[in-house]
Amino acid sequence: MTLIARLRIILNDVEPMPMRHIEVPLKIRLDRLHEVIQAAMGWTDTHLYEFRVGDAGWGMPHPDGFYDGPMDAKKMTLEKLLDQTATRTIQYVYDFGDDWDHSIRIERVGEATQGVTYPRLLKAAGACPPEDVGGAWGYEEFLEALADAMLPAELLGPYAGLVLLQDANDLFFAETALPHRLSPRLENRLTSNRGLCGEQVTTAAR
Fold first, then answer.
1. What pTM was estimated for this model as a whole?
2. Using one digit for the tens of pLDDT, what is the confidence trace for 7-32?
3. How many Å apart are CA 5 and CA 2, to the nearest integer?
């Protein structure tokens, strides 16, 4: 019997709040879960990350074996983390410079649906910010700059072609200019037959 965890992921301190609902195998390793989150949120996987529960953290340990860093995410699965910590909420931090703070809520765990392949994205709302924009505060200033119609395009750099659409309090970036979106490597990995857990990946929503 294969167990599946349904997760709700929100990006804190950003308005409108980006949110994703995904389903992943309960036995998924945390380094693989990181890649699924990167693809689902629209990050480019170009910075360090860490999963945190209380004082414990899992990510990419220091190559020289220093003990003050996170434990190896490759050696921990979601199932073991939940068993060992009894938590229902996990903190996920991406990019220790911009410090993007996500909350992962385990909504339920159940049996896999026959004929469905995992991981899969169930629902998505809101766009993630551009990479290296300066964190939540920098992103707020970035949006203000984009909203200023008098701002010269050269000051926006690679984001000059970005179009903002505001609808029902939800923010989306137009598909015509996506310098901050999913990297081709992650895109290929999510849609390949090999998948992230040795299974074909199906995305129910993009």
1. 0.74
2. 999 999 998 899 999 999 999 999 99
3. 10
